[in-house]
Design a protein that fits this description.
Helix content is 75%, strand content 0%. It is mainly α. The protein has one domain. Helix 3 crosses helix 8, helix 3 packs antiparallel against helix 9 and helix 6 runs antiparallel to helix 7.
Length: 231
């Protein structure tokens, strides 16, 4: 993550002779009320995206694509179990830092902080910057079933950053969303959560639809102070 995502951002700041924190809008004041809204937003996104993946899995893919997608999912699950299923609080803390905070920081810094503005400046369109950087972000996760859900959340995060110019807010949402799976896995290990989050393939629609409504409301609050996007 350091080599692929952080170093390009650091070198770009050095060669452009800009201060790192100001270039990536990391100096903005923390609005704790907005961060609480962001936390709730990250939580309600979880059942929505899990259900989206399940609905996509039901699509009648050609057998060759189905086999490839199933193999991708199996490999990803094996890799995650390799890291997350080690018992103990120390492993939980390490994985939360790596999977949650680490991925949230490095990926937001590169894709939203660096790549999106570069593409937007080159094309003179913020929406091209959002969509292209989001497409690359989704493709780099190497998952057919997760491609659209990841693209969806990436576009949301890209638009959010274009509105708020607060990369810390993006990092926080990304880290909380990733960290939720790590936390749920740990709570299941210590018997505080009866359900293994890895076994949850979808949620009832009666639960998903309210989550969608809540997510829309919370997202509107996150972008409410800066509603204009220049093309």
């Amino acid at each position: 993550m350091v080599c692929v995502f952080i170093l390009p951002a650091v070198f770009f700041a050095l060669f452009s002779k800009n201060k790192f924190l100001s270039l990536y809008h990391l100096e903005t004041e923390v609005n704790w009320r907005k961060y609480l809204i962001a936390l709730l937003f990250a939580i309600v996104l979880f059942p929505i995206l899990i259900s989206m993946e399940y609905w996509i899995e039901q699509f009648p893919f050609p057998s060759s694509i189905r086999i490839l997608a199933d193999n991708q999912n199996a490999l990803i699950e094996q890799m995650m179990k390799l890291f997350l299923d080690e018992p103990g609080f120390i492993n939980f803390a390490i994985m939360y830092c790596l999977v949650g905070i680490g991925a949230g920081l490095t990926e937001e810094l590169f894709f939203r902080g660096l790549l999106m503005p570069i593409i937007a400046d080159a094309t003179k369109s913020i929406w091209i910057g959002i969509i292209v950087s989001s497409g690359i972000f989704a493709a780099m996760h190497f998952s057919i079933y997760n491609l659209l859900p990841i693209l969806f959340i990436a576009i949301l995060l890209g638009y959010l950053y274009s509105q708020t110019q607060d990369l810390k807010l993006n990092i926080f949402i990304h880290a909380m969303f990733n960290g939720f799976q790590v936390l749920a896995n740990y709570l299941h290990q210590i018997k505080l959560l009866p359900t293994d989050i890895d076994d949850v393939k979808t949620f009832p629609l009666i639960f998903v639809f309210p989550c969608i409504a809540i997510a829309i409301f919370l997202y509107s609050k996150l972008i409410s102070k800066n509603e204009n996007v220049s093309n």
